[in-house]
Specification:
Largest sheet: none
Strand content: under 5%
Number of helices: 4
Helix content: over 70%
Radius of gyration: 31 Å
Shape: flat
Length: 144
């Protein structure tokens, strides 16, 4: 007597499915990443931490054993700093990110021009195209 065993196997390996979901999650996280917001948060945290340390040093010399008052004063300084400095830190971070993007764009353009020039030095056809474009540019510039 012959018997056959029919076992249903999964079409995909569970480990592969988990890895694909992790990669999809990382891609989604990267797409939602805002460098300016993250930088602003870090700047704000650093400034608030510095202010709290300074306030702790000042209050510690004033309060002789009044720990609750010192604790309340430190938190008041922390919350006031967060409220007052958040817009400034956000704008500073946006300006920093924009200037970094502009520098990156200029650097990429310089590298591309250098690569084109090196190619033109080695290939007479590319050099002829470069010289023709330069002449057209000069003629257009003179007529306007």
């Amino acid at each position: 007597m012959t018997s056959f065993v029919h076992i249903d196997y999964a079409q995909k390996h569970p480990g592969v499915q988990r890895a694909e979901s992790v990669v999809a999650g990382m891609i989604a996280l990267r797409q939602n990443f805002d460098a300016a917001h993250s930088l602003a948060t870090m700047l704000l945290a650093a400034v608030v931490a510095a202010l709290v340390v300074v306030a702790d040093r000042l209050i510690d010399s004033w309060a002789d054993g009044h720990l609750l008052m010192v604790w309340v004063a430190l938190w008041a300084v922390a919350f006031a700093a967060i409220g007052l400095l958040a817009p400034i830190a956000g704008q500073a971070a946006r300006n920093l990110v924009l200037s970094a993007q502009e520098w990156s764009r200029r650097s990429a353009n310089a590298r591309a021009e250098d690569a084109f020039w090196q190619n033109a030095l080695n290939d007479p056809r590319v050099m002829a195209e470069y010289q023709a474009a330069k002449q057209r540019s000069e003629q257009t510039h003179l007529t306007t």
